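Feature request, filed as a ticket because there's no other form

It would be nice if the structure record came with a short human-readable summary line next to the C-alpha cells. Right now we just get the raw output. Example of a typical job, pasted below so the devs can see what we mean:
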Amino acid sequence: MKKMTPARKLSFVFPLVLSLALCGCQPKTPAAPSTDGGSAEASSSAVPASSESSSPANETVQTAAAESSEAAVSAPLITIVSHKLEIPGKGDPLLLVTGTYPELILEDSYAGAHNSLNESVKKYNSDSERACKSGVSDLGIQADEWINMEDGPGSAIFPLFSECKSELRRMDDQVLVIQDTDDLWGGGAHPTTESTYHVWNVNTGEKLGIRSFMNHESGLADAICDELRKDYPDVSEIKEGDPTSYIEGLIKKDELDCAPYGGVLHVHFDQYEIASYASGDFDVELGPDDYGVFLNKSILADKTGDPDLIVSYTDAEPEEMSAGEGRSMFKPACPSWDYYAKSGLKPSDSHVTLKETFKESTDWLNTDSWESRHGFKKPVLPYSDKTWIYEPTHYREYQYMHDALDITNIRTEKTISFDLDTLMDGPDEINSEISKLTQFLRYAVCRDDILYVSVGHNTYAESEPRSSYIAAIDINTGEVLWKSDPLVSNALNFIVTDNTIICGYGFTAEDDFIYELDRATGKKVNSIPVKSGPDEFQAKNGILYVATYNTEYEFEMTGE
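Raw output as currently delivered:
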C-alpha cells in the first residue's frame, strides 16, 4: 500500500453493545409492517442471516469485549483513504490535471468475519481506481491538446479535475452505506457533480437497491414525486412536470439512487436527471411514519450510532501520472461512406440460419416488460461482458451522443481508447466528405481482438443516408477492417455469433428488416422483413428474441 498521510485522525472508544453488534451478534430482525396495518416478514433478500457470525475473528473480538465492560476497539472498523493523482505541467501551470479516488479498508478482524463484504469492497476499490485513472488520463490528453494550440486558452483554466469523495453514511449489523460524490471539470462552462450511493448487506456482500428496502412498489413513485414538489416548490417543472413514469422505471430496474440511513430512506437525483442544470440536484427523505406502507421498517432501523467512532479518513501521498498513461489510443479513419472491406479478407464458409417460431403483435411493444418477462438485461452502454468493460467517454450535442469509447480488459486492466469522431462523421478517405448530421455510437462488442461498433443518427434516412452501419476495428492497430452497407443497424444493439452478426434497421415510413452480416467481411448475407423497426436483440439457449416497435419475434438459431 502507498504511504498514507493522516488527514484527520479520529479517536474512538465505543460501547460494548455497539462493538458486539458490529462484530456479528445480531438481534432478531423485527417483522416489517404489511400494507394492511398488520405485520409481514422482512424481506429475506434485504438482510439474510449471516453464516459468518461465528467466525474466529468475531469470537476473538467478543471474548475480549466480554473480559471488561470498558473494553475498547483499538482501530476503526473502516478506513477511507483518498488517493490523489496529478499530471504536472511544464512550467506554468504547475498542474494540468488532478484526480482523487477512494479506497475502503476494513479492519482486519472485521474483514475476516465478513469475507463476502470484504470481497465486494475490494471490487469497489478496483473499479474506483480504474475509473479515476482513466478519466485523469483522458483529461491529460485534452489538456495537452489545448496547450499545443496556437491560440491556447492559457493557464487560467488549469487544473482540470476528476475527483471522487467517499463518505460513510451507515455501518451496523445490517448494511454498509457509502456515498460517493464525483466532481468533474473538463474546461467547460462549469463543473458537473454527481452523487451515488453504494449499499451492501454486511453479511452476504450483496449490493442492495430499492427493491430490498420496500414492501411493494405500487404508489412509491408518486410518494417520491410528492416529496419532490413539497421540498422544491420553486421548481415548476420536473421532468416536464411529471417525473412519475421516469421514477417508476428506475424502481422496476432497481436503479433508483437511494440508501437507508439515519432512520429514513434517502433518494437522490443528479443535475439534469429530472430538471435543468440550473435547478441543481434533488434529495428527498422518506420516513417510516409517513411512508411505512411502502418501506421495510426493519432495514431502515439504523444502529450505527456516531459514525466518527467507527471510521477514519486518511490521505495517501500524491501519485504522478502522464497524459494517456496505461492505455492505447486510436483514431480510426473513415475509408468510405459506402461498403468497404480491407483487401484480402476471406468470407466465412457458413452463417446462422434463422427459422421463425413465434410472432405476436400489439399496438406498441413495451420492451421493459418484454425484458422482464424473459429475464433479459437491457443492452446499453456502458456494460461489461466476461472479457471487456465498455465505457463511452465523450459526447457532443446530447449526453447520449457519444463519439469515443474505452474498452478495458477485465483480466489485465489495460484500457484501449477509440476516438470515433472521424469514423462517424468523416471526412472519408475517398472524397473528403463529411456527414450531414451528427452521428453517434449506439453499441459495441469486442471478439477475438476485433471491435464491432454500430453508428447512426436519430432521424430519417433521407436526411443522411450514409448512416446506421456497423464497422469492424482491429484493437491492436486501430485499423478499420470493414464497414457494412449503410442503413442496416439502428436498433439498440446487435448480436455477434461465431460467423454472423445479426442486426436490424427500420424507421417510420421506411422498410424494416433483420439483417445478417458475414462477420469476416461485413457483407450482407440475409435479409428478413419484419412488421416494424427492430428495437432490441437477445440470444438465449439457441433462440433469437427480437423486439420491434409493435411485434415480438422468436427465431430458432442453427449453424452458430
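Something like this underneath would help us a lot:
Confidence is low (pLDDT under 50) at residues 1-73.
DSSP finds ten helices and 31 strands in the chain.
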